[in-house]
Amino acid sequence: EIVLTQSPATLSLSPGERATLSCRASQSVVSYLGWYQQKPGQAPRLLIYDASKRATGIPARFSGSGSGTDFTLTISSLEPEDFALYYCQQRRNWPITFGQGTRLEIK
Amino acid sequence: EVQMLESGGDLMQPGGSLRLSCAASGFSIDNCDMTWVRQAPGKGLEWVSSLRDSGGDTFYADSVNGRFTVYRDFSQNMLFLQMNSLRAEDTAVYYCARGLPGTFYFDSWGQGTLVTVSS
Fold first, then answer.
1. Is the N-terminal amide bond of A95 cis, ω within 30° of 0?
2. Cα torsion for B114, A39, B59, B17, to the nearest 10°?
């Protein structure tokens, strides 16, 4: 099983700042990595797939990078609605696995 | 508009059985990979099971393999999860999710249905 480790667990920033979230895989997932946003009481929303492709309707301030075992989700300038939980997910191998999440909170 | 609506969640005793349903609209499930993901209270996301569109191959997490069965009904455009031998650790909100075409990234999700397993 591929283990995804996200860091930091919590990130405290202010609106307008840049956010950098990390996801590290226990073995290579090539570029088969996605990112999701989840707000309280809501289902997750796909932001990024294949490491760097934005899903439909996702604002350009969200970007993804990385390959192999190290990946980054960057939010260039935080909007108030961006404060949420973020998960990475790999589809390289079965079982599909998610990271444990990063909470992005308002400072 | 693509929508998925889960139902069937309930309070169950350990060892019981339950069937979850996911009614899809705005798209045809026979053209999509479909998946169940769960989230225990206050916890992260856990993949449970997937059903591939072509060929109907099924995949299960080790934690549910042999107890849960995923299947679909094309005529009703619905996805199901039959859950047997329920355990306390199965307590979670269960989401059905649609795969982005040709992938197992999940581009549409239902609102979830809560399964609680407790004596």
1. yes
2. 0
User: Dihedral sign, CA of B69, B58, B36, A9?
Assistant: positive
- Condensed to tens digits (0 to 9), the pLDDT of residues B19-53 reads 999 999 999 998 899 999 999 999 999 999 999 98
Cβ contact B18:B69 at 8 Å: no
Residue type at B20? L
| Element housing B22 (H / E) | strand B18-25
C-alpha B23/C-alpha B30 separation (Å) is 13
In which band, very low, low, confident or very high, does the pLDDT at A58 lie, cut at 50, 70 and 90?
A: very high
Contacts of B62 in chain A (CB under 8 A): 95
Tell me the shortest Cα–Cα distance from B31 to chain A, in angstroms. 19
Question: Taking Cα atoms as reference points, which of A7, A23, A4 lies closest to residue A95?
Answer: A4
CA dist A107 and B10 (Å) reads 38
